[in-house]
Design goal:
Blueprint lengths: L12 E5 L2 E4 L2 E3 L3 E4 L4 E3 L10 H7 L6 E5 L13 H5 L3 E5 L1 H13 L4 E5 L5
Parallel strand pairs: 6-7, 6-8
Antiparallel strand pairs: 1-2, 2-3, 4-5, 4-8
Amino acid sequence: MKLQPDRPDTLSVTGYGVGWIGVSGEKISHSLVITSLGDKFDWDCLQFSDLTPRHFERLSQLPVELLIFGSGTQLRFIHLEWLSPLMQRGIGLETMDTFAACRTFNILAGEGRKVAAALLVEQP
């Protein structure tokens, strides 16, 4: 029984592994941001310790209702004060490891939700 409509018109994560993510068939080996609206851009951070408030300020400008933060190979949380720009715009944030973030993005984008995924891709 099919419960969700397919959304072939949106970006999707088509695979992942240590040090890479496949987005709509393209293998990418650096951190990136994708949205269900079709946006895809590089996210200039090589590891979790590179993140700054500036990274999340930029994400607060996306026209989405939810941001999924993929924190790399393990679950790690950002500083609470970095969430202020997101909260001011009414954008929710969910944090999970990057592989879980990929799966969650696909589900929510497939449902037609306005969602973005900021995916930290760490090299081994």
